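Entry type: protein chain
Record version: 2
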Amino acid sequence: MGTLLVRGGTVVSASGRTEADVLVDGERIVAVLQPGSTLLGHDLASSVDTVVDATGKYVIPGGIDAHTHMELPFGGTNASDTFETGTTAAAWGGTTSIIDFAVQKTGEAVETGLAAWHEKAGGNCAVDYGFHQIIGGVDEQSLKAMETLVDEGITSYKLFMAYPGVFYSDDAQILKAMQKAADLGLMTMMHAENGPAIDVLAEQLYNQGKTTPYFHGIARAWQLEEEATHRAIMLADLTGAPLYVVHVSAKQAVEQLAAARDRGKNVFGETCPQYLYLSLEEQLGATGDPTWGDFEGAKWVCSTPLRSRAEGHQDAMWQGLRTNDLQMVSTDHCPFCMKDQKELGRGDFRAIPNGIGSIEHRMDLLYQGVVTGEITLERWVELTSTTPARMFGLYGTKGVIAPGADADIVVYDPAGHTSIGLEKTHHMNMDHSAWEGFEIDGHVDVVISRGDVLVSDGAFHGRAGHGRFLKRGLTQYLT
């Protein structure tokens, strides 16, 4: 801590780029100066404690991953990243804030679930963290508990149209929760898949002997994502509640979001790196690993599932990001090892723990979209930092390089290179990489969180406990 100057770089925001030097005092940015400015003295660099040379590089606000699941209990096991390992990996990849999901299980009090997550995360995070609240059982008690969330700095909650018997809410429960959310100003986050129908298809496939990971994608057909997305939109329309649909993967679901937005509705969607790059055929259907054979696809089992490349879903996700029919890219980071975790579903795809580990690679994978011309440099910053901050009540403190904002700064080298893989770039607590072999034409060089340098010169300088809990305000993104 002290004073720090990031000089010589190009500051990139959601609305443009400019050559500028960034002065940090303590935890905050205090000035963004023209190169060579003498406003604060003729040799500013000699008067600060630390100088970061960003010549030829981009200077961007720290990434915000608004959808992670550290230590999540799922399918008889727990997500393999702890808050310490997961946030350390986040820092390596240029993400300086996460929003994780506190879980209320059916029959448990909302307050109990939230307290458990504060216990898991408190003192263990390398970067700043906030929470969304999963409401796993909508009843009078949980509806009443929603009234306390805003005071806790938790201004969004999540419902599931999938996973009957675990997190599932029916339409009547969703209606009641959305009515309450509309009154309170809470953002409703929705896992939009028709769970009961999926369970029927999955059982039918299993009974036909179709048990490999590939059939996870077949059971969770795009029609069931489109249908649930439409249903969620109509319930939100009825109640006046803003709606944020998580991990959108089907092009038809994007069409539903776009149609609602064209009517002026407060409906938003995120996608994830896996839905931009990976597919049903290539990943879920993979058989090339000598250890795992036709079970290799379990590495990429997540919900919503990877979609068919032949059907064009990946291209549609990129297009949705360009047109702002999709506003953000989060990871849905929910890692599991193959050994002793994913392999619980060997012989029955229904028992494979759902989740992919991507928190370390989101900024890089999206930057590669800049390199290939899918999105602009400014849109990269908007998707990965600025919009997440606005969507979830953090903007001004996070998501921007401006005086008064937290000094969450990433120096990104467009001339650098990053090779992703288990023995290459990999700090997540997993025994495989979902991104093995991906090559990125760029590199995260320096990561600063609230004025502290977490990553520089290829080394980690952060610590568990640096990260603070973020009390969030109401969404700043409504039309």
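Comment: Residues 63-388 form a domain with the TIM Barrel fold (CATH 3.20.20.140).
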